[in-house]
Design a protein that fits this description.
heterodimer; A: about 110 residues; 11 strands; B: mainly beta; four-stranded antiparallel sheet
């Protein structure tokens, strides 16, 4: 099985930087996703990491350490529209097929 | 990317009835996934649907309750059978495309 942990809620100030952490335990790791989900909407893809290191995409960056079972999503120059839930998800291929399991999500509130 | 549509977008159903949700993708994909997201919670995988084979159900979900069809590489249906109020949730179709996972807009189901 899999165990994915991320903080339930975070608050940050507009223009600042925030880091959302995710730790996981899985037997057949085959990639980690970050998604953004605004209330009442479907999740939208932000990033995918399968190798260790930092992937940068505009204001958003995602980091992965497979040996530590750890990832973070870094959001820079926060905007009010970044208020949303951020979901960490891990792909596991140990069951003979690829399965993606989601963490409970981190609800980020950006304040002026 | 992949563009996914779902029908219906929402429905209110009486307990004991069944609802079939349709998912259409704009490109051919091998694997399609059905998720459930209950209010305020993260996504839970119901089953994985591959074309030409039986769907693979996750723990806690059974074929009699959630029968799935996958007649071709661009379409799938999920039926929620013999509904109860506990089935009230958002049901999301998802596909994997170029190692990224995309979601449909979801079907918001309310069972009274």
């Amino acid at each position: 099985g899999q165990n994915i942990d991320q903080p339930t809620e975070m608050t940050a100030t507009e223009g600042a930087i925030v880091q959302i952490n995710c730790t996981y335990q899985t037997s057949g790791f085959n990639g980690l996703f970050w998604y953004q989900q605004h209330a009442g909407e479907a999740p939208t893809f932000l990033s995918y990491n399968v190798l260790d290191g930092l992937e940068e995409k505009g204001r958003f960056s995602s980091f992965l350490s497979r040996s530590k079972g750890y990832s973070y999503l870094l959001l820079k120059e926060l905007q009010m529209k970044d208020s949303a839930s951020y979901l960490c998800a891990v792909r596991d291929g140990s069951g003979g097929y690829q399965k993606v399991t989601f963490g409970t999500g981190t609800k980020l509130q950006v304040i002026p | 990317s992949a563009v996914i549509s779902q029908k219906p977008s929402r429905d209110i159903c009486q307990r004991g009835t069944s609802l079939t949700i349709q998912c259409q993708v704009d490109s051919q994909v091998t694997m399609m996934f059905w998720y459930r997201q209950q209010p305020g919670q993260s996504l839970t995988l119901i089953a994985t649907a591959n074309q030409g084979s039986e769907a693979t159900y996750e723990s806690g979900f059974v074929i009699d309750k959630f029968p799935i069809s996958r007649p071709n590489l661009t379409f799938s249906t999920l039926t929620v059978s013999n509904m109860s109020p506990e089935d009230s949730s958002i049901y999301l179709c998802s596909v994997e495309h170029s190692y990224e996972q995309y979601f449909g807009p979801g079907t918001r189901l309310t069972v009274t």
